[in-house]
Amino acid sequence: MTTIRLRRKTPVSDRVFDIAIAIVMILVTVATLYPFLNVLALSFNDSTDSVRGGITIFPREFTLKNYQIIFSFSGLVTGFKISVLRTVVGTILGLISASMLAFTLARPDFQGRRFVSVYLAITMYVSAGIIPTYLLIKDLHMMGTFAVYVLPGLVSAFNVFVIRSFIDGIPFALQESAKIDGANDFKIFWRIILPMTTPALATIALFLAVGQWNSWFDTYLYNATSDHLTTLQYELMKVLQSTTTGNNGDYRSTNMTQAMATISPESVKMAITIVVTVPILLVYPFLQRYFVKGMTLGAVKG
Amino acid sequence: MKAVTATMNTKERSRTGRFWTTFIRNKYLYLMSLPFVLWVFVFSYYPLWGWLMAFQKFKPNGQSVFHQKWVGFDQFKTLFHDEVFYQVLRNTLAMSIMGLISGFVVAIMFALLLNEIRQMFFKRFVQTISYLPHFVSWAVATSIITRMLSSDNGVVNDILMGLGFIHEPIQFMGKGNLFWGIVTVSDLWKETGWSAIIYLAAIAGIGPELYEAAKVDGAGRIKQIWHITLPGIRSTIMILLILSIGHLINNGFEKQFLLGNNLVRDYSQVLDLYSLQYGLQMSRYSFGTAVNIFSSVVSLLLLFTANGLFKRITKESVI
After folding, report:
1. Which residue range forms the structural domain that includes residue A21?
2. Is-above-0.80 flag for pTM?
3. Does residue B79 share a domain with residue B68?
């Protein structure tokens, strides 16, 4: 009697549970995605029409005018170039440094490995702070240079440890046999270890690239007066600050201010937001499988 | 006696000799690590030297740290007597603690629910969408969030008005008492999916035989979550909790910088922004550095305290 009741009861409660989860998950998905789609629709909608409201995820009066106008700003074009450049250069340099350090730390016969591990780990917890770092950059005459985007953060302890834990999983006998065949350590690194580490490298490359693409604070702090070194995120940040309530906009670019008068600042903001986001959305589906791996790899050592 | 010294000498010599032989044998390893070790020294260790400034009245007159006027703990005294400092400290801790608690609870719940989805395609789809906001910058997130919360045609106001909760739009971004909540919810929107990855990985590591046994004993799905899944990811939760407690006081400033404005300054200013404002905009470098030291030292203390507690409870150490 009891068994029959149990067998009947479980599926019903199970189905209720499944439906409840599905509803929650659909709500989560909508809440995550709707803001992006709404901004996208607004960026393609005529700016005077947008003011009337009621735009959801489709533009009502489709136009490319918002994009035409923002791409006539010199700051945005320069910003795009510099953002792409810093992403490429920063990612390559970051990969080189992290993989080389990781390779040496994974070598049991390297005397310095214990010291270097601790030495790097400390930097994850102790930092001098904004002011001493700022003064250092100033003393090194790196203000107003491109180098300030890629050099100060060149070595990231976290990235080193992620790659190192991956290399630890490669049998050391492989390196030993290469050595017997006469390969030096650099050759072993370049020809054997690097090709075998590609999944970890891809993950780290993704983290580095996203970090580079998304940063604006270094531009704000060190290169705010160098218009030729502006970045896309910084341009967006300036537009945001100039239109927020209660802030005195310090937006210097005059052609931007004029353009904001012809179409609404809100439409300018939406279009720039989309321009800044699109490159990430383009690589997102391809790299999706890597970052889950990277996240769990990092968790082992992190 | 002589013989002993002689053997010791040879021993010593052979030891240093062995060091140099390995050094030469490993010359490529040194070539691949030393430059970066020096690099880290310049950009991570050398600036710590600047901490001396906090005990001086540093003037940016081109003189080195040694030629500045020493003032002992004066900067710290000024700091601890500044009313704004306590307001800033309150804001920092309030937003960190709200973010910490809600971040953990929501991410864990999200992971648990996601794990219960049986259609693989749907699970994958939801998960992929949920990571997305993690990859956009805070500048983009701010732009999107201010649009959603806007008082003209923002979707949040539209929904609240449509449901009849309010009769006129709320100026979300201009209300100081709403700022902490806005930051917390924005953080949840941006990071929940990403934080859940690690819990899902931990859940995947729980042996299926535990669930089988529970089923035989007649446990329903909610009971299985409570008695098997949650205890199964307990150590993961503990480790992450301790690491984030270390970051309670320097929990970033980007979101506060970008979402904040002059109207909500009393609630949006956090320690890093405070040091930036005093240190750089007012050129009080020594004072700004004192603030930086305060947050670094407190976060180390928090980390060690949390780790010590963890050690006492579980006899394990995280760091």
Report:
1. 2-63
2. yes
3. no
